[in-house]
Amino acid sequence: MPHERDEIPPGVFRVCMVCTGNICRSPMAEIVLRDMVQKAGLGHRVSVTSAGTGEWHVGEQADPRTIDALADRGYDASMHRAKQFDSSSFDDLDLIIALDRTHERAIRSWASSDSDRSKIRLLTSFDTDPGRQLDVPDPYYADPATFAAVLTTIEQACAALFAQLEPAFRAPQTSTHA
């Protein structure tokens, strides 16, 4: 499960990036978005995690080419360990970001309510570039240059996502105390 209920304080917006094995695309997206959140001083308002639709790599580090591509741009992926998305996570998440339409379909099939389905979005759907790809390509069977290109796509889409979400993160938190 990408989130443990008692680890994240109430009022924190919880985002989970999802790809196939949680060793290439979703760790990139998690680390890129988390970096944007931290640099904006909003780490106390937003939690970013990632998971895979399958269990093949659970517990493993990110693919070495993922780690290298991220490191080349100043990101640290050394602590990442792959997790599998668990349908019980819907209650613990505010936004579930699929890296391609296959992931989006799989997650939607696991959703048990309209509320759960309303939390699912395709990462590229935030990017307004008319030339954008709908799916973030899977670099797993490709070379390091492809990993770098996929990271560029993810950085652009995460910047668009963050631009749309940041105003809500910056809005004053409402207190429920009298």
From TrEMBL:
Lineage: Bacteria, Bacillati, Actinomycetota, Actinomycetes, Micrococcales
Family note: Belongs to the low molecular weight phosphotyrosine protein phosphatase family.
GO terms, molecular function: protein tyrosine phosphatase activity
CDD domains per record: LMWPTP (cd16343)
EC number(s) given by UniProt: 3.1.3.48
Pfam family, one: LMWPc
Catalytic residues, chain numbering: C19, R25, D138
Keywords of this entry: Hydrolase, Protein phosphatase
InterPro entries: LMW_PTPase, Ptyr_pPase, Ptyr_pPase_sf, Tyr_phospatase_low_mol_wt
Protein name: protein-tyrosine-phosphatase
SUPFAM superfamilies associated with the record: Phosphotyrosine protein phosphatases I (SSF52788)
UniProt keyword Hydrolase present: yes
Domain Phosphotyrosine protein phosphatase I, chain residue ranges per copy: 13-164
